[in-house]
Specification:
461 residues, mainly alpha, two-stranded antiparallel sheet, 20 helices, 76% helix, 1% strand
């Protein structure tokens, strides 16, 4: 088939995915799998090998990600059950002051969102939105949007989040470098789409009801909160929560290990006997495994939990990720069919003739896919499969920068097709119009900042 015909097939396939997910209410994993079969049949992929192609795509994607997703879910559950997220929130708010409440929520989302999915992180941290809104006497919308935007930024561009890790693997990018670049780009994204947008773009929102007291970890109100001096929360001891330092170390440990591997590989000579050990420990699976056992101790055993308690917690953390695994696996199958059918190469040939930077194209593809499908994960994985031939055929393109560009694109246009849109709308008590004017615009601003960051990185990396 000609390149234009292949592009038409892709457009129809994406439209089919959108209709199946949005209109028919089919699960994204089923929609992606049906689209994969449809693309393979229409493009003339041999029918006797089409099943094997899909199986290869699923296995190749999940073979690397299944344990990473599972271990990451354990870390997130430990953070939730131990009260580690609440400790980080209280400590940052006390030290930075309530006058900087929007920046505090942005930092909370950026730090606490590293080991958890964006929806899980939002549900986990949204009670703190109401606590801080009462303390700072400002709108819950102004507090909540910086939180969810930073969670979304980390979710899309900072491994070990599954989608960010998946596209790094698809593009052949070094995960340690993606983490470093993701953090460099992610902080400005979260700042502009969060506190800056909250200050400039959210006006006229009704302030959160100011009630006496502050929610404790158990949900009861603490009447002593009204005694806080202006601008800061009272520095009260709280023995029921883990320490700030140990919690922060637990969250950042897998990132530190993987970034450390990247640094040491550049420093150590190839003949060094330590190099194989560094590569082993710095592998994402090994790094997360180390982090899980450290979390068992730092947030569990050290605080009186038993191994039976940790076993129950671990079992309970796996249920919610089943759907994510299926979506990612089906996305891998769709990508494999795109590659086998030649659609990826056809698009690469057409796009390479356009006077537009490949970084912009990668960002735009992910942005439009997120808008159409409503899943940042699906958008990122599909976009990576589409732009892979561009990276393969152009050695001057940095796969790490392209991974950042794709992740930045998937941040934007969070709207009615995305479950996160409705989650935020309901929790913060907004109308659809308010949510579009706040969440959708905030994530889109963060996405544009991410594109600018990727373009700047492309000049130096």
């Amino acid at each position: 088939m000609s390149a234009p015909a292949l592009v038409c097939v892709l457009i129809v396939a994406i439209a089919l995915i959108v209709v199946l997910i949005v209109r028919v209410k089919l699960h994204p994993a089923l929609a992606l799998t049906l689209a994969a079969f449809g693309v393979g049949i229409v493009t003339g992929t041999p029918l006797d090998t089409l099943g094997d192609t899909i199986e290869t795509g699923v296995g190749g994607t999940l073979g690397f990600l299944a344990l990473i997703i599972g271990f990451g879910s354990i870390l997130g559950k430990m953070l939730e059950v131990s009260g580690g997220a609440e400790r980080i929130a209280k400590s940052l708010l006390h030290r930075l002051g309530r006058d900087r409440a929007t920046w505090v929520m942005m930092l909370i989302g950026f730090i606490a969102g590293i080991p958890v999915f964006v929806e899980v992180g939002f549900v986990l941290l949204v009670p703190l939105v109401f606590v801080i809104a009462r303390q700072a006497k400002i709108s819950v919308i102004k507090i909540g949007i910086p939180l969810v935007t930073s969670l979304m930024v980390v979710h899309c561009i900072v491994p070990p989040h599954p989608a960010a890790t998946a596209i790094a693997g698809t593009l052949g990018a070094d995960i340690g470098k993606v983490i470093v670049l993701g953090l460099l780009v992610g902080l400005p994204c979260a700042a502009v789409g969060g506190p800056v947008f909250s200050y400039v773009g959210i006006r006229g929102a009704v302030a959160a009801p100011v009630t006496a007291g502050r929610l404790s970890a158990s949900g009861a109100e603490d009447e002593s909160a009204d005694e806080a001096p202006s601008g800061r929360l009272p520095a009260e001891p709280d023995r029921s929560l883990p320490g700030f330092g140990i919690t922060l170390l637990t969250i950042l440990l897998p990132l530190l290990i993987m970034v450390g591997r990247t640094v040491l590989v550049q420093v150590l000579p190839e003949s060094s006997r330590a190099l194989p050990v560094v590569n082993l420990v710095g592998n994402p699976i090994a790094a997360l495994l180390v982090a899980v056992f450290f979390a068992y101790w730092s947030l569990g055993l050290r605080r009186g939990a038993g191994m039976s308690d940790l076993l129950d917690l671990t079992d309970g953390s796996f249920g919610p990720i089943a759907g994510i695994l299926l979506i990612i696996g089906a996305g891998g199958a769709f990508n494999e069919v795109l590659i086998a059918s030649g659609i990826g190469d056809g698009i690469a040939r057409l796009l390479s003739a356009l006077p537009v930077s490949p970084v912009i194209l990668a960002w735009l593809i992910a942005l439009l896919l997120h808008f159409a499908v409503g899943s940042a994960t699906v958008a990122m994985i599909s976009a990576a499969g589409i732009v892979l031939p561009m990276v393969t055929n152009d050695p001057s393109l940095s796969p790490e920068v392209m991974a950042i560009a794709i992740g930045a694109g998937a941040i934007g246009l969070t709207q009615v097709t995305d479950s996160l849109f409705w989650l935020v709308k309901e929790y913060l008590g907004m109308s659809v119009q308010q949510t579009l004017r706040s969440l959708t615009l905030a994530t889109s601003c963060a996405s544009v900042v991410g594109l600018i960051g990727a373009l700047l990185l492309n000049l130096v990396v």
